[in-house]
Design a protein that fits this description.
The protein is an alpha/beta fold. The chain is 36% helix and 24% strand. The protein is globular and about 55 Å long. It starts with a strand and ends with a helix. This is Ornithine cyclodeaminase.
Length: 322
């Protein structure tokens, strides 16, 4: 069994390639039970969340003679980790032979998660962001921020990247790192103004209160929401949801777990039938993406096990050849 480190994951993947890998995965499909979601109560501080995310190859889509794969991610989300300089998300990914169940690889799950999450946003943007979208705002300066800049740049002609974070010094650090990669990146302190100027707003936080206000969104903006993975969390307000054409990564999880969707459904700002499509339908051409240059689009991601499986297979197959 291979033990694949974060550095090896980074060496195996590119944003452009992984966006296309995910496009193929959603188009073909996989067996993906609803993920296990458990609250780990702590006597002091914020509760943690334990996630178990299984998926396996849909053998109706696997070519003759192939064994397929089974994979499961075990992840924890501990919001208080930020205060001690550790990532909020910790994870490992176990990939197995689909026929025999033999363990094939244990993959660094934190790296795999940020890669697949960012590239799922890039995949959605390839259908939902304007083709000339050039101004990207990233809300949140965690581990996902630089990968979101790369993923959106892989599918749209991004010229400027602006970063807002509750702790401004972290936004400054991310902007400096992106400038080292040749991007025009800078930290900003006025969130509403930055949202109003952006073509794409990509939000990756652990916020429980709305950050992206619908009142300041300009026509044609694409809103990419990645945090708020529980019903009590939220990154956008009702007006943002109500003004937008809403898409999700997977319908079953979004209407049960995604705070931006769950709370908007509860308030009446959104009806379940108003969700225009998911990544399966977009990649298969069953539902259209953006319909006009002035349309505001919103993509809500809660994370899908098919994304981990596709990324894990890509990493394993590349690492096993070296």
């Amino acid at each position: 069994m291979l033990n694949i480190s974060a550095a090896q994951v980074d060496a195996c993947l590119t944003s452009a390639d992984l966006v296309e890998t995910l496009r193929t995965a959603f188009r073909k499909g996989a067996v993906q039970p609803v993920r296990h979601h458990h609250t780990v109560e702590r006597p002091e501080g914020s509760d943690s969340t334990l996630l178990l995310m299984p998926a396996w190859s849909d053998f109706s889509t696997v070519s003759s003679g192939e064994n397929g794969y089974v994979g499961v991610k075990i992840a924890t989300v501990s919001p208080d980790n930020n205060a001690i300089g550790k990532p909020a998300v910790m994870a490992v990914y176990l990939l197995m032979n689909g026929q025999t169940g033999e363990p094939l690889a244990l993959i660094d799950g934190q790296s795999l998660t940020v890669w697949r999450t960012a590239c799922a946003s890039g995949l959605a943007a390839s259908y939902l962001a304007r083709e000339d979208a050039s101004r990207l705002l990233i809300v949140g300066a965690g581990a996902l921020a630089p990968l979101l800049a790369r993923a959106h740049s892989a599918v749209r002609p991004i010229r400027t990247v602006r970063i807002w974070n509750r702790s401004p010094e972290n936004a400054v650090k991310v902007a400096a790192a992106l400038r080292d990669e040749g991007m025009d990146a800078a930290a900003v302190d006025d969130l509403d103004r930055a949202v109003a100027e952006a073509d794409i707003v990509s939000c990756a936080t652990l916020s429980s209160t709305p950050l992206v206000r619908g009142a300041v969104l300009k026509p044609g903006t694409h809103v990419d929401l990645i945090g708020a993975f529980t019903p009590t969390m939220r990154e956008s307000d009702d007006e943002a949801v109500a003004r937008a054409a809403v898409f999700v990564d997977t319908r079953a999880a979004a209407v049960k777990e995604a705070g931006d969707i769950v709370q908007a459904l509860k308030s009446g700002a959104l009806k379940e039938e108003d969700i225009r499509g998911d990544l399966y339908e977009l990649t298969r051409g069953e539902k259209p993406g953006r319909k006009s240059a002035d349309e505001i689009t919103l993509f809500k991601s809660v994370g899908a096990a098919i994304e981990d499986l596709a990324a894990g297979i890509a990493v394993y197959e590349r690492c096993s050849r070296t």
